């Protein structure tokens, strides 16, 4: 399946997993970036891929150091596009994102349960 998960709509959650109708622009932007990378990590792990090796980012966003730092932190892996080390994960980020990934998986399943035909 090309689009994973097969969920439809905009789904916003607060710190207590409560559904939200909106977020502040700053929080929404950060949540969007983190959500995309958490989704990639979750589904890569479910497919049996190992994380914590390195990430190769390509495309337009690969020139944005802030986005690359979030990517590096979520995967707990250095980002090395074109064999050039760009970022390494923050030491404290692994524990944060390991826990966040569990929450993300739970919330994704919740969304899928609501949107499955």
How would you portray this structure in words?
InterPro entries: ATPase_NBD (IPR043129), FGGY_C (IPR018485). With 117 residues, the chain is mainly alpha-helical. The protein has one domain (21-104): ATPase, nucleotide binding domain (Nucleotidyltransferase, domain 5, 2-Layer Sandwich), CATH 3.30.420. Helix content is 48%, strand content 3%. It is built from 3 helices and 2 strands, in the order ββααα. Helix 1 (25-46) packs across helix 2 and helix 1 packs across helix 3 (93-115). The longest helix is centred in the C-terminal third of the chain and has 23 residues, at 93-115. The two termini are 16 Å apart. The model has no long low-confidence stretch (mean pLDDT 89).
Rounded mean pLDDT is 89
The topology string of helices and strands comes to EEHHH
**Percent strand:** under 5%
Q: Which fold name corresponds to the CATH topology?
A: Nucleotidyltransferase, domain 5
Number of strands: 2
The tally of helices reads 3
Oligomer: single chain
Radius of gyration: 15 Å
- Count of the domains: 1
Unreliable stretches (pLDDT < 50, length at least 5) are: none
Fraction of helical residues: 40-55%
- Within CATH, the superfamily carries the name ATPase, nucleotide binding domain
Provide the spatial order of strands within the biggest beta sheet: 1-2
CATH class, named Alpha Beta
CATH architecture classification name: 2-Layer Sandwich
Terminal residue distance: 16 Å
Structural class: mainly alpha
**Morphology call:** globular
How would a crystallographer describe the biggest sheet? 2 strands, antiparallel
């Amino acid at each position: 399946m090309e689009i994973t998960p097969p969920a439809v709509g905009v789904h916003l959650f607060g710190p207590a997993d409560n559904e939200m109708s909106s977020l502040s622009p700053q929080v929404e932007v950060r949540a969007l970036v983190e959500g995309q990378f958490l989704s990639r990590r979750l589904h890569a792990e479910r497919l049996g891929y190992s994380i914590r090796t390195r990430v190769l980012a390509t495309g337009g966003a690969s020139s944005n150091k802030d986005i690359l730092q979030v990517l590096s932190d979520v995967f707990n892996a250095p980002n090395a596009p074109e064999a050039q080390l760009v970022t390494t994960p923050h030491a404290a980020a692994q524990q944060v994102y390991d826990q966040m990934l569990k929450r993300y998986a739970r919330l994704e399943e919740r969304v899928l349960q609501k949107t499955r035909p």
